Amino acid sequence: MEYEGKDNLDAMSEAHVYNGYLLNNLKKSIDEPQMKILDFGAGKGEFADKVKFAFPACNIMALEPDETLLQCSSQVVAKVSLDEIDDDSLDLIYSFNVLEHIEKDTEILTQLYDKLVQDGKLVLYVPAFPCLYSEMDKKVGHWRRYTKSELIAKVQQAGFRVVACRYMDGIGWFASWLYKFNKNSQGNVNPRLLKIYDKWVMPLSILWDKLTLGSFLGKNIWLEAQK
To answer: I want to staple 197 with a disulfide (CB 3.0 to 4.6 A). Which of 65, 122, 179, 201 is the partner?
Structure first.
């Protein structure tokens, strides 16, 4: 399986403030040494590598069906299918901007539930607000953008108990709204504009999230759940 949005993925790898924001939030869920962790839909594997660097005692696996995409270090175990992973074996599964690519997302959530130990954790980060669906969503193969209620319902249907659910990148909502009506975008990310946004706007968006507690608006949804 080959991912269609490699150019956008390459551009996003340069969004250091944005990616650091996600990583810092994820670190809060890694509260025990030697946890067994899965990056579901790892892309190039940069988050898996960063988690391994921050928590060297943890067993980190990166699952990515596009074998040509994954470039993680030898310290991370590469997987291409959930079938390669035993049930009741993982302490934490995180997935950043992946679930929206899967048509039958509830079925995958159920499979992820089965892979976790009792009280194991799930962290999801997905695009929010169907009204923001744009050419970029189409280009990279998104089936949907989520509402909070839809995501919570699907996670609960899979058997999980939702612990937290909030919006992230509040100012990104307005940027995504403007992008939606850019007739010349063709679904591409402009690397130069992305770097400007990441350096100057993203810190303000993080502050927005803190002030609003993620309750108002956001380009994405962050959800934490437990088996």
So the answer is: 201
In a domain, 147, yes or no: yes
Other CB atoms within 10 A of residue 86 CB: 8
Please give the distance of CA 117 from its chain centroid, rounded to a whole number. Answer: 21
d(CA 226, CA 78): 24
- Give me the CATH number covering residue 110: 3.40.50.150
Closest among 68, 82, 97, 6 to 38, alpha carbons compared: 82
In a domain, 160, yes or no: yes
Pairing of strands 116-127, 220-226: antiparallel
Task: Please tell me the distance from the alpha carbon of residue 201 to that of residue 209, in angstroms, as a whole number.
Answer: 12
pLDDT in tens, the chain (227 residues): 545 556 667 778 889 999 999 999 999 999 988 999 999 999 999 999 999 999 999 999 999 998 888 888 889 999 999 999 999 999 999 999 999 999 999 999 999 999 999 999 999 999 999 999 998 999 888 999 999 999 999 999 999 999 999 999 999 999 999 888 876 667 777 889 899 999 999 999 999 999 999 999 999 999 999 99
**Domain housing 163:** 6-226
Neighbours of 2 (CB within 10 A): 9
Residue 1 lies in a domain: no
26 lies in some domain: yes
Q: How far apart are CA 209 and CA 128, in angstroms?
A: 14
Residue 188 buriedness (CB in 10 A; 0-12 / 13-18 / 19+): middle
